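Quick illustration, no need to memorize.
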Amino acid sequence: MDFFVQQDKSRSKTGLLVFLFICAVLFVIAAVYAAIMAVMVYNSSSMEIKLFNPKLFFTISGVTLAIILVSSITKIIALSKGGSYVAESLGGRLVNSSTQNPDERKLLNVVEEMAIASGVPVPPVYVLNDEKSINAFAAGFSPNDAVVAVTLGCCSMLSRDELQGVVAHEFSHILNGDMRLNIRLIGFLSGIMVIATVGQIILRSGSTTRRRSYRSRSSGKGGGQILILALLFLAIGYIGVLLGRLIQSAVSRQREYLADASAVQFTRNPSGIASALKKIGGFSGGSKIISPSAGETCHMFFSSAISSLFSTHPPLPERIQRIEPGFKGGFDVVKAGVSPVETSSAAGLKSGFAQQAGADISVSADTVVSHVGNISPENIAHSAEILAAIPVKIKEELNDILGASAIVCALLLDKDPGEKKKQMELLERSAPLGLVRQITIVEKSLKGIDPRLRLPVLDLAIPTLRQMSFGQYENLKKYTDILVRADSKLTIFEFSFKEVLTHRLDTAFKNARQKISYKNITVIMSDAVCLLTALARVGHTDKKAAEDAFRAAISNLPAKREALEMDKKTSFSALHTALEHFAAASSGVKKAIFDACSQCVLFDKKVSINEAELLRAVAYSMDIPVPPFLSKDAK
């Protein structure tokens, strides 16, 4: 599965969504006009009423369109808060990373493994406490503001393998860009379905009018008109709901098949997701969601959240048969209860991870590019090893904002005692004493940490750091900037690490949705030269080897490149601008620049752990998910 192609496909479906929305709006406008004309005919004794009144039609069209657009825009603004807003609107409760509940610990562990294996930030996890059924969803505009939510039944009734299959399905939606389409669909549907609400308001006001008419013994048709209009608007509103279900079905069904297939590919365990689907089929509560918001969000769920004529999901037997061709249909009865809590798959794997430390990895650039956005069972097993290798004290610090902030700052401290002292002295002038003391404490736990653990630790810190206030976040950015710039030297990993942190958190704190500004690499070739120069010099100490690596990388770019030479000097600000531009580039441009970066770093077909993590950090800052490198990738 090509990550960049899937991103383009997801974005192209936005055009289909807009087209379907426009068609639905036109239908609703025509229906509202017809309803009002019907009331006018009912109330008139004249036979000369024209069925098409241009002035009335355009007035009704304007008012109806305004109501639809205001409703959609209001919902879209609310949704700009990201996946957490969706989860909380459905009654979701944020799972604390320090929870001791066995089911919640199992859930967090599965999500953390999947996130680290895929190279995306660990998403906050929510449990829908009031939902006893078995269901789940992922929501957000991008991996940077995504959340994973499961029902209480999903958390408590599924085994670890079943839960892993469900979570892998949801991660497919995260990696394929489906979440962005799903959340936009909620906003569009809110406008289409608002007419039913208008009908209910008219019906309530009509009831008041009829009571007044009865008390005054009026024999006019006023109350009857309002009742007819209200009923017609309700009918139109529910037609709008039906159109919404059609749109949800058109956008959602095929993507569910793809996500099921991806879950099998990721875990190489078809029985996990198939067994979860069978439990849904055999459970009396099924996958139904009782929340009032279920209707507008039903297309986001793992399985059908509501009963509808036009289902947003394929039938359970069809989904299972695609995973298990021998499935004959029929489900065993499943009763609500607690599933056995298996131990983490990371148990006992720390030593295997440690044995690989320090060894260079033999891998080709093409292999690295092909792994983008793809998860393999080997990646998941490796992520379990990574989680097991992270010291317990570090994990405990990540449970609160102070500890997570201190960990991030400590990861940016220089190994050289003199440089580290300078960093801390500069930090003490701006940071509160409590943070400085905490950095000193956690720095001891991080001493000698394997380079492969730095990005995973950052990923694990993201859910906690997203709970900061905006002021706390601005201060954290200031502190990390001080640490990176303290020695005035270009330490590109530290710089990239800081870029990843701010890029990922900006989405959560500033609602900074990345827009595509660059569809042609030619206009940002100077940025490509800047980035590739920095990578060539960091990855190759020999001047000629660095130049050869740079030329090899430039030759892979689909643009005029004959006169391009390495920059004589690179700066933090120039690199920051380059990464910002590439983060705002189209999928095709991102693929081209990441391929060139891989060619540059992996020019000699071998890469040190430091170089591998540097390449991943650069990719992360451009929203390109790269799984941790495996030594067996050489083949």
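The beta strands are 92-94, 125-128, 136-139, 147-151, 361-362, 606-607.
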